[in-house]
Amino acid sequence: MNSTAEKYIRKEALPFIFCPGCGHGIVVNSFLRVIDKLGIGKNQMGLVSGIGCSSWSPVYLQFDCLHTLHGRALAQAEGLKAVNPDKTVVVFTGDGDCAGIGGNHLIHAAKRNVDITVIMMSNYIYGMTGGQRAPTTPYGAITKTSPLGNEEHPFDLFRLVTGAGATYYARASATHPIQLDKAIEEGMKHKGFSFIEVLSPCPTTAGRNIFSFKTPSEMYDWYESQVAVLKPGQTEAPDGKIGLGILYMNNERAELCSVQAEKKEVARNEN
Amino acid sequence: MRIKKLSDSGVKLMQGNEACAAGALAADCRFMAGYPITPATEIPEYLSSRMFAAGGVFMQMEDELASINAVIGASWGGARAMTATSGPGFTLMQEALGYAAVTETPLVVINVMRGGPATGQPTCTSQDAVMQARYGGHGDYEIIALAPSSVQEAFDFTVRAFNLADKYRVPVFVLSDETVGHTREKLLIPESVEIFDDEYQGVCREYFKPDENGVPPRIRFFQGHDVLVDGQLHDQRGIRAGTDPAVCAQAIRRYCGKILDHIDDISSVEKFFPEDAETLVIAYGSVSRSALSAVRRARDEGMKVGMLKLNTVWPVPEKEIRAACAGAKRVIVPEMNVGEYLREIQRIAGCDKVQGFSSIGGVFPAPKAIYEKIAEVT
Ligand SMILES: Cc1ncc(C[n+]2csc(CCOP(=O)(O)OP(=O)(O)O)c2C)c(N)n1
Ligand code: SF4
Ligand SMILES: [Mg+2]
């Protein structure tokens, strides 16, 4: 274990449930580098997650943590944040947890522009339950529940989440840790609903079902070939690749907790 | 317990739903999340500005799933927190209520019962969520439920619900109904209320280690505990133990035991004419008022009738029910459902002796109807 991880890991929760080669571990490492750099104090941050492989991430960290129900991380995070507006709240979630069963909470949390940072680990699949179709599964892809090829199209999460009102959107990949660190760091600094979509390879169930990679490293090579780091101002990569970077930031739209604080003032004066 | 003085004490004219909301504010509830539903909607409406004035937060969520989950988050965030709902909304909340039970999250749900199933009878009164309150979620756990019958009790029981939630670290339900919720009558807001305010001192690492009462430490986020809250069955450190039969069995026994071992502390009943009752009426919620008026009339006419009013329905006040039934030849249980709580009374006093008096379809049983039932069997 590296020394940053050593500092923040909840040792009694080990071993990790992650398979060898799972991208989720890379995301956890990146998150720890960022909070260490930002110097976020022990009692200043609450971590919230749903259910899925990705949602196990914060359970291993020595912080106050709510490991909630499938899809409900954002709703619990909003309650936690509403009564602790001065604290940092970070949500760890999967593509299924966040955009599938939790999709309604996702668009409404974005609409509220509540100051929560969401790290959504996207692996095109339901990893934990063994490889079923996720809302991000590509059209035509083979999964355990789409053996004839996915009948449905995946979400365009960038347009969905920013369209709903999120004020920060970054896309990162476990294959590009430097850009991943940056995406998380800027997201945590941003006041408002910050959404970080992280491409996180799942060698076990996506690797076997959607793709037919023999090893995790083959899978990482393929991911590397599919992504391109965006230049500032770009939201789409040329040549049809998946663009990595900060795609959107808006500092104009009012943030929910600040508005709630104003309402408290108004209501107090009226009474 | 701390005594909190109330600035708005005195006599008011208030609706039952408003009284629940006022009781919540009096009890220092500082977070409400809800979703509009008849006949509970006046509760979020009442709190939508007053919660902010009290320094708290009100949120209208996207649905009842979000509402109850936000309440769980706020509770761990250190606020007394509640939601209010009815029929379909209470059904949507069940998964999270089970989560609250196994994570021992204190919270209060006001369920203003309306007729079901499904969309059912949105504007009509009912008591058909009594069994759901106890058995609505999957898995074995216990909860506490109080059943107010008047505007005064709506206020008083809501205050008590918050104290019980904190004392036992459990979800507590105020099982109101459309009749209580929409009745407007006198409410005396007391000079002060008691607030249960025990908090864990020091740094806690065994977040779910029970005290001598089976209740875990009263901790929350941002106090240095690094608490791990998990809906998977867990050990005392909050670490997953889903595949450990011994740890899981012990945990489930404790979720049940911490409530069932304290029935005497939790239970509240009122006895009317217990001395010579050959016919006993057992009722709760709004129906108990109608029943009491029927019992009084029957006594005026010389019938040996008594009544037991249940202020708490879960856990079952078994001792009081058994004692009250012991001397009676027959027991009538009037309810606005097909006979839900009837089964509990039959379990305790026997099927031969106990019969239901069911009022469904949204009909509130008038005193006359219950009187006629008493007269028929006595
Ligand atoms: C209400 C409910 N429905 C279904 C499940 C089963 N389930 C557990 S994890 C999961 C999928 C998780 O997928 P994702 O969020 O993409 O996480 P990943 O495992 O891929 O990281 C499902 C369907 C559940 N726990 N709860
Ligand atoms: S199944 Fe996939 S997502 Fe889950 S831990 Fe294994 S590699 Fe990671
Ligand atoms: Mg997934």
Explained architecture:
- The complex is a heterodimer of chains A (271) and B (378).
- With 271 residues, chain A is of the alpha/beta class.
- Chain A has helices spanning 3-8, 23-38, 73-82, 95-101, 103-112, 157-164, 177-189, 205-209, 216-226, 256-270, and strands spanning 45-49, 64-67, 88-94, 117-122, 125-126, 132-133, 168-173, 194-199, 227-229, 242-249.
- Chain A has an 8-stranded mixed sheet, with helices on both faces. Chain A has a two-stranded antiparallel ribbon with strand order 5-6.
- Chain B has 378 residues and is α/β, with parallel strands linked by helices.
- Chain B folds into 2 domains: 2-195, Rossmann fold; 269-377, Rossmann fold (3-Layer(aba) Sandwich).
- Helices cover 38% and strands 25% of the residues of chain B.
- Chain B has helices at residues 16-26, 42-53, 64-76, 87-92, 94-102, 130-135, 151-168, 178-182, 245-260, 263-266, 287-300, 318-326, 342-349, 367-377, and strands at residues 2-5, 10-15, 29-34, 57-60, 80-85, 107-115, 121-125, 144-146, 171-177, 184-189, 192-195, 228-230, 269-272, 279-284, 305-310, 312-314, 330-335, 354-358.
- In chain B, strands 3, 4, 5, 6, 7, 8, 9 and 16 form an 8-stranded mixed sheet that branches. In chain B, strands 13-15-14-17-18 form a 5-stranded mixed sheet, sandwiched between helices.
- In chain B, helix 11 (287-300) links the parallel strand 14 (279-284) and strand 15 (305-310).
- The interface between A and B is large, with 41 and 47 residues.
- Strand 2 of chain A pairs parallel with strand 12 of chain B.
- The site of iron/sulfur cluster has 12 residues of chain A, from loops.
